[in-house]
Amino acid sequence: MPDREPEASLAWLYDCHGLDVYRLALKILSNPHEAEDLTQEVFLTFWQRAAFKPERGGAKQYLLTLTYSRAVDRLRRRGIHWRVLQRLSRQVLLATDSTEPLERMATEERIRALRQAMAQLSPVQCECLKLAYFEGLTQVQIAHRLAIPLGTVKTRCRDALIKLKNLLGPH
């Protein structure tokens, strides 16, 4: 890597290896937005931490190893969230398939109440909650994805959850 200012060196490194990092992230994650986020995360990590040791291998190999590791971590998190959602979906389906009319009516009422409450949220609040709970993104990742400040994401999520709590009451 040529002798340059740190930002110029990072830009040079990105120009040299950014496409390779993105391609690997995309191949593993199968999601262009997540691959873009991960690419940015990898280069920021490289820049902010002094973990790269040239004697252990080249910069490209380090970046690709870091990309692979972070992508697999995201897949694991996604899998955990997916399994939780599947389990909840099965519980709701079992409850709605119940032969007990009162039990089925109670479940249908909870589902209807939740849908009505979600419809009363603003579109930006809904978007933040969907990214957090259905895609499993952290608030930092949501801020990056939506290109908004982290504080705005936190406020939207907090306000949405408070509104849902008030709308749904002690259900």
In a few lines, what is going on in this structure?
It comes from Gloeobacter morelensis MG652769. By secondary structure, the protein is an all-alpha fold. The protein is built from seven helices and no strands.
State the major sheet: none
Count the beta strands. Answer: 0
- The structure class reads mainly alpha
Order of helices and strands, N to C?
A: HHHHHHH
What would you report as the Rg, rounded to the nearest angstrom? Answer: 22 Å
CATH superfamily of the largest domain: RNA polymerase sigma factor, region 2, helix turn helix motif
CATH C-level class of the largest domain is Mainly Alpha
| Shape estimate | elongated
Helix content: over 70%
The number of distinct helices, counting runs of at least 4 residues, comes to 7
The low-confidence parts are none
| CATH topology type of the largest domain | Rna Polymerase Sigma Factor, Chain: A
Ends distance: 60 Å
Average pLDDT rating:
79
Query: What's the number of structural domains?
Result: 2
Strand content: under 5%
Protein name: Sigma-70 family RNA polymerase sigma factor
Organism: Gloeobacter morelensis MG652769
Domain RNA polymerase sigma-70 region: 13-79, 117-165
Pfam family, one: Sigma70_r4
